[in-house]
Amino acid sequence: MPGPGVSGAGMRTALPVTVVFVIAAALAAAGCSSSGETARTRFPATPGAEERGPEAPAPGTSFAYLAQNEGCRCEEYTVPDKKFPVRYSFRATYRMESGFITSIRITFENRGRDTMFLDPGSVMVSSRNIGYQFNNMFLPLPDLVIPPGDSEDLDLDGKEVTDAPTWNKIAGEQLTLTLKGMRMGENVLGTQVVTFVPENPMLREPGE
User: From CA 114, how far away is CA 111, in angstroms rounded?
Assistant: First the structure.
């Protein structure tokens, strides 16, 4: 996508590639939650609005992606590794500013006795409708080390490459995040795949 920009708290070395692409639950099972705090701008009814259709949101207004894993639609999705004491949380939002800008935050929680290393791993973001620069390409994760008992956040920020931004692309959009190759000590952690569907502000809810 244009390439997600990637950053992480406590990062030892900056990621050598700028990516502009481009979520609690018990450790024993995946889960999801919805905070209800995400911006959900709706559009006030005005005379003639039914004939004109909904107005486009103000530039810069943020909307949520909903993770569609484990049979739920949730703003925050949390899942453990299947073999090792590591937990991941995923949350994503987007806004329109001369094209779609998407932000994804991944929280890595090391609940084990060994150190967790991100740098052997890679991340890929795949969009169905939006043309991010490195769409469908694996890119290296930063040199981020997470000691036992600690957690760290990793932010992925990406902008659409376009000369003609349009809200039409939000209809049917689906975003898939894939993480693979991270290590806990000498062990390779399992691949994580999360699918997101964006909230569509152009669709009115009944009574609005």
Answer: 9
**Distance between CA atoms of 42 and 54, rounded to whole angstroms?**
9
CB–CB of 7/18 below 8 Å? no
CATH number at residue 128: 2.60.40.10
The predicted model scores a pTM of: 0.74
Q: What is the mean pLDDT of residues 83-89?
A: 97
pLDDT digits (tens, 9 = 90+) for 27-45: 233 455 434 343 343 333 3
**C-alpha triplet 88, 101, 5: angle, nearest 5°:** 60
Listed as own residue / partner, the contacts of 189-193 with beta carbons closer than 8 Å and 24 or more positions apart are 189/81, 189/83, 189/84, 189/86, 189/116, 189/121, 190/81, 190/82, 190/83, 190/84, 192/79, 192/81, 192/88
Domain residue limits at 70: 5-35+60-198
Both tokens assigned to 187: 């062990």
Structure tokens at 93: 């939002």
